[in-house]
């Protein structure tokens, strides 16, 4: 087993976090797109009914797909809200601490401001 230094460990953590975050975002937007396509208020009754027919026609594929994308979104998102009770968990707090350790104070403060703005954004 090889030993890795703190910089390599931080890089591995960021790669894992990036992958999970991208997976969460893509799964969410796929799920959201499908759900919106069957919502009368979003696409109108006629189009929503057509889309429901399409989904039902291939329900053996579409229903598990919809469910799987939602589950993947939830699971990948949960990773970032771990309570940090365990040594090897990944969380936003740990990621922020790594960034703080490897950047200067101005850069870190700027990132915290950007994070605050993203949190306020209405998706």
Features of this protein?
6 helices, 0% strand, 2 domains, mainly alpha, 123 residues
Q: How would you describe what is shown here?
A:
The protein is an all-alpha fold and 123 residues long. It has two domains: 1-80; 83-123. 78% of the residues lie in helices and 0% in strands. It is built from six helices and no strands. The chain has helices spanning 6-37, 40-43, 45-57, 59-78, 92-102, 105-120. α1 (6-37) packs antiparallel against α4 and α3 (45-57) crosses α4 (59-78). The mean pLDDT is 83.
Portion in helices: over 70%
Q: How much strand content do the residues show?
A: under 5%
Overall body shape = elongated
Low-confidence stretches: none
Q: Output the radius of gyration.
A: 20 Å
| Structure summary, number of beta strands | 0
Number of domains: 2
Order of helices and strands: HHHHHH
For the largest beta-sheet, the strand count, sense and barrel status come to: none
Number of helices: 6
Return the structural class: mainly alpha
Task: Give the integer mean of the pLDDT values.
Answer: 83
Distance between the termini: 44 Å
List the helices and strands and how they pair.
Layout: H1 6-37, H2 40-43, H3 45-57, H4 59-78, H5 92-102, H6 105-120
Helix pairs in contact: 1-4, 3-4
What is this entry, summarized?
The protein is mostly helical and 123 residues long.
């Amino acid at each position: 087993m090889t030993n890795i230094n703190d910089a390599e460990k931080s890089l591995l953590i960021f790669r894992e976090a990036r992958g999970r975050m991208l997976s969460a975002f893509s799964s969410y937007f796929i799920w959201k797109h499908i759900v919106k396509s069957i919502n009368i208020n979003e696409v109108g009754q006629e189009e929503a009914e057509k889309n429901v027919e399409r989904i039902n026609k291939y329900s053996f594929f579409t229903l598990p797909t919809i469910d799987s994308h939602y589950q993947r979104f939830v699971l990948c998102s949960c990773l970032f809200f771990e309570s940090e009770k365990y040594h090897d968990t990944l969380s936003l707090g740990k990621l922020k601490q790594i960034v703080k350790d490897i950047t200067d104070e101005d850069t870190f403060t700027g990132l915290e401001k950007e994070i605050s703005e993203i949190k306020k954004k209405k998706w």
